Amino acid sequence: MKTLQFRRHSIKQGPGDTDLSNEGILLAQTIGGRYLRGKNFTHVFVSTLKRTQDTAIEFMRGAGDVPSLTLHTFPPGVEVGGTEEALGLWSGVCNQAEHAGEDMLQAALKKEPALAQNIATQSATSFTTWLASLPDETNALIVGHSPFLELMAYGLFGNILPQLNYCEGFE
């Protein structure tokens, strides 16, 4: 049976693809120790952005029992999350919502419903194809971004999840 745990990256130092802040490093290590210890991950997947990679490393450091695993790129995040239309949604409606302290998924579904639905559907399709390619015994940690993870879940299950806070996740 395949087991997947999705988590949002930790707190970064500033805008753009920057390092995690000291608070972000501590948070990721704490979450790793509290929630990821003993999970026996076989794979770790991240986006192409440094904050997800650093978060995964700090999760593993905090868990203390994760062998040295290679970080792999999460294909749906690149295939769909990195498209021009998705980047437009992230830098537009979602960025505005985040700065206003609003739920980014709710804002995307309200202000750009067709685009958000399209990204959700494409993400679900990409994810389903990718999942079928993994070995049955896969136990993976996926560190990604909000609202991409929530949009993908929406595309897969039709459920609107509340926005993930830093290091929060779901299985």
Record the strand order, biggest sheet: 3-2-4-1-5
Major sheet details: 5 strands, mixed
What oligomeric arrangement do these chains adopt?
Answer: single chain
Low-confidence stretches: none
The beta-strand count equals 5
Structural class computed from helices and strand pairing:
alpha/beta
Radius of gyration over all CA atoms, rounded: 15 Å
Explain this structure to me?
This protein is α/β, with parallel strands linked by helices and 171 residues long. The chain has helices at residues 22-36, 50-63, 75-79, 84-99, 104-111, 113-133, 148-157, and strands at residues 3-8, 43-46, 71-73, 139-144, 169-170. A five-stranded mixed β-sheet has the order 3-2-4-1-5. Helix 5 crosses helix 6 (113-133) and helix 6 packs across helix 7. The protein is globular and about 45 Å long. The mean pLDDT is 93.
Which labels suit this protein?
single chain; 171 residues; alpha/beta; five-stranded mixed beta sheet; 7 helices; 52% helix; 12% strand
Strand-helix topology:
Layout: E1 3-8, H1 22-36, E2 43-46, H2 50-63, E3 71-73, H3 75-79, H4 84-99, H5 104-111, H6 113-133, E4 139-144, H7 148-157, E5 169-170
Parallel strand pairs: 1-4, 2-3, 2-4
Antiparallel strand pairs: 1-5
Helix pairs in contact: 1-2, 4-5, 5-6, 6-7
Brief summary:
Helices cover 52% and strands 12% of the residues.
